Task: structure prediction
Amino acid sequence: MLGIAYTECFGCEVNKKLQALGMKMHNYHHFYDDCCTANFLSSPTCHVFVCGAPCQPYSKAGLQKALHDPKNGEVLLWVLAWICGHQPEAFILENVEGLCTTHRETLNIILGVLARMQDSKGKKLYHVEHRVLNLCVHGHIPQNRSRLFVVGLRLDRLQGREFSWPCEIPTLPLSDFVKGKAKQGPLNNTEAKNLISVQRKFAKTGRSLKDKWVIDLSASEPHAMHDVSPCLTRTRAGSGGHYLSWLGRKMTDSEIFGLQGMSLEKFPADVMSSRELRLAAGNSIPVTLLARLMSQVLSAIGRGP
Result:
């Protein structure tokens, strides 16, 4: 997408099927099945390190235990240890907005550790910034997906260059991502009940389901957005995405992937089930947003096109 030659130094994933998918789609020189190990810390270094750590410790849908989460809380600590030991030229860390809002104290710890890292001469190692970016504002795609990004740039690589965050850009129309009719089964009981609730609310406010409303029918309280998809979380994507009112159906797999900046056709069909692929899509970093941020990072460290 950026037109830049690159080498995939290594990858890391704990889920067995995602491991198989990653190794089939990429040419990793090394692959690790757990970042919370000394083996991972001994991995090769790289120019740019990208990490989307599990979001459940910081998500509204998770346990809200941050670094104390029994399953994934320590992941970011190991990531910090890797950065400190390998000192890549740049890094990009991604997580849910909740890390910046609900768990601000945890973010402050992370930023503090990164800011205090030093090189072999005792000099400050990184310029660190963080910002919340929304896919529908900064990545072209009509999905309301806000995510926190922490960017670190090694000071010896900046050499007077400045880093700029991706600017706001026009959102592409939803019609570019949603295509006509598709055969699907009936809504489940919760979805059907919530659709009736939405119909009643719309009738009172003069809105029409014939307009382009994208509705989360799986939540305890249904949520509708006009011309923009609500966030496709892991759970929502796994359950078939959101309801498209003007088409009278939920999203197709291709539409879910498209709203994450990916083409389903590029994924092998013999590694994971359709539902497993959707779950993975909901957990991913949107490609267009990451590409725009990566372009800015590479330019700042003198490795842009």
